[in-house]
Amino acid sequence: MIRLLLFYSFVTFVVGSECPIGWTFNADTSSCYAISARLFTFDDSVQYCNSIGGKSVSIDSYSERDALVAITNSTFLQPWLGARRNTTTNRFYNLDGSYFYTLMWTTNEPSVNGDCVTFKRATPSGLQVTQCYQLQPAFCKQTPALCNSAVLGGPNTWSGTFQSPGYPVQYYNNLDCRYLINSPNNTFITIIFYPFVIEEWYDSVEVYEGNSTSYYDYIGTVSSYNMARGFESSGNVMNVKFKTNYAITDKGWLATWKAKKDMPTITQTGTNGTLVSPNYPNNYDSYDEQVYQVSVAWGMQVNLTIDDFRTESKFDYLNIYNSSVQSNSTLVATLSGALPVPWNWVSPKSYMSMKFVSDGTLQFKGWHAIWNYC
């Protein structure tokens, strides 16, 4: 495991392009910070932060307080914080509505020497009451463009990958990421997380149906312990939520998703029948994934003959299984390309299945098969 240390210099935390120009990223808080060169009154500092796309810093955890010590290391004057006194109740509050930590005051504070708050870096560090009309640096904060509101896929996109911020080195603390996957109409989405290394129980990846994170749309939680790595949606929209706490991080994860057509299984029973690829004898479509099931009377066998076959070699294929279950252990043959016909096979039991898969490039006429019992 990798624990992020709290007492690096501010410059150490600059990572890629997480923050806009002029802002600096802090890996302990996963936030962007900027300290102004100009001096402002408290009210003007709030307006300044808003004007550059942020807000005045309101400390939301003890780990952030410790990180701010390093961030303000080279600042001579104490910068404004986004907190002030309610003169009616005489209580201090954060402007952004977050919880105000009353135990973060420095020694002998809060005093009666003002109604606004600055951050004192020197030991003992903490919050200090300051007159609101004094001129101090503005201290601004914004959420970085790490992962939130990431929209993936689209009406013509059938697959893709995405990963945790910082992968494969390490992700950050205090993340709350959303990844919304959209696939073409009449498809569903499959997703696999591999590799997957996070702080279990405290950091989490959850998968939901649609654009939702509600209990009713919950699909599952990715886990290293029970090897729950693969999930499937019922429709063409899936939402992935990645949330981390304030302490330990690791290398993270890589997710691979694919869109699949909603193609019901074709089932045939009796004494004989005909099976064909989608659209045969015209070209099959891109991204087909069609399953076929055949069963005959108990004690009999299925005699399968393919008398016409042409697909894109290697990439479009027909799998033959000696079971109604499609798995590597039941796979008999994989047919692809320009197959010499006729091709014949007799099942060992009274049932068998097939699965036809095509990719997104070349399409051909496909195949034609007949079956009977023997």
Automatic annotation (TrEMBL):
C-type lectin domain residues: 28-141
Protein's name according to its UniProt entry: CUB domain-containing protein
InterPro entries reported in the protein's UniProt record: C-type_lectin-like, C-type_lectin-like/link_sf, CTDL_fold, CUB_dom, Cubilin_domain, Sperma_CUB_dom_sf
Signal peptide: 1-16
Disulfide bond in keyword set: yes
Domain of life: Eukaryota
This protein's record includes keyword Signal: yes
Residue ranges the record marks as coiled coil: none
UniProt source species: Caenorhabditis nigoni
SMART domains in alphabetical order: CLECT, CUB
CDD domains per UniProt: CLECT (cd00037), CUB (cd00041)
Domain CUB: residue ranges: 147-260, 262-374
Gene responsible for this protein: Cnig_chr_V.g20540
Keywords for this protein: Disulfide bond, Signal
